[in-house]
Amino acid sequence: MRIERDPERGCSESMTSIGIARRDFLQRLTAMMAALPVALRTADGRLPIGFSTLGCPSWDWIKVLDFAQQNGFASVELRGLSGTMDLPSRPEFADGQIEQSKKEIAVRGLHIECVSSSANMHDAGPEHEKQLADARRFIDLASRLGAPYVRVFGNKLVGPQAAAVEHIAGSLRELGSYAGPKSVTVILESHGDFTTSPVLQEILERAASPHVALLWDAHNTFVQGKEDPAVTVRQLGKYIRHTHLKDARLAGGQDNYVLTGRGDVPVKRQVELLAGIGYTGYYSFEWEKAWHPEIEEPEIAIADFAKVVTQYLSAAPKQKHS
After folding, report:
1. Which residues lie below 8 Å from residue 41, measured CB to CB, with a gap of 6+?
2. What proportions of the chain, in percent to the nearest 5, are helix, strand and coil?
3. Cα–Cα nearest to 32, from 307, 302, 279
4. Running DSSP on this structure, what letter comes out for residue 109?
């Protein structure tokens, strides 16, 4: 897998030039944010952008928060921390520490938008119960952190489609009933065998829960689902609560992840479509560094996303009114 760097970036920059470039970036970011329509800003005036900790698997808790604040992000999606995916077991979220961690989030003006689990809804029998129990642990953590969403997977289409859809929808409904009283919504990611609008819509309609919605991984529906983003947003827009955005060059049947806006995935169009329907969630960067260690370092890729998506949002159309 190959990552393409911005040709304006050089590895031989001096510390002085890096400092100047960073100050210039922050000044431009501030100017672009000021130009954004009020509807595209968060309540505290920040740009509604975030990133997943999947992209920085070696960073510790404080480095994640500091980097988010310093680069203009408003939110962080928790998907692993310091090398482990089992977030409920992390010392930062233990009974004696979680209140301090919440203060560390708040003092930086940040929000935890989503706590992402690995729970799959396709299993049956004892393994299915194990997956549901794991999802509940993540829902409990999200509730304690004040995070509105927990991500789960449908993942695999097992057996006849109608039965598989009903099984996954029922699982989501059950989790939604558990999550609702805790002020959490369970969001199904467009992932695995579930990357097209018709099947995702059927699952969400059958789940029929106000506490079940969609995490739109816009890369997956475009690349694996081969679906135009306009089709996805038209059919699933009312369910979208959170996003995963990333770019790639598509060659030889493989994703070659690249910096945002340098590849074949229409990220700019995806952002525009979301803004056009009045999407109020975060535009979240999912850089898969944990799974692909050879791709660009998070210090470069995550900061670059902030700059590029700020530009996209500043040019995005306002919500259409009928």
Report:
1. 33, 47, 48
2. 45, 20, 35
3. 307
4. T
Q: What is the per-residue pLDDT across 115-174, written as a single tens digit (0 to 9) for each? A: 999 999 999 999 999 999 999 999 999 999 999 999 999 999 999 999 999 999 999 999
Residue reference for tokens 């679906």: 227
Q: How far is CA 245 from the centre of its chain?
A: 7
Residue 21's pLDDT is what?
Answer: 54
DSSP state of 215: E
Across 212-253, the runs of DSSP E, i.e. the strands, are: 212-217, 240-244, 247-251
Structure token pair of residue 34: 């000021």
Q: Are 52 and 80 in contact (CB under 8 A)?
A: no
Question: Domains in the chain, ordered, with CATH?
Answer: 45-315 (3.20.20.150)
- Straight-line distance from the first to the last Cα atom of the chain, in angstroms, rounded to the nearest whole number: 45
Q: Which residues pair with 216 in a beta bridge?
A: 243
Which structure tokens are listed for 192?
């695995």
User: Residue 284: phi, psi to the nearest 5?
Assistant: -105, 130
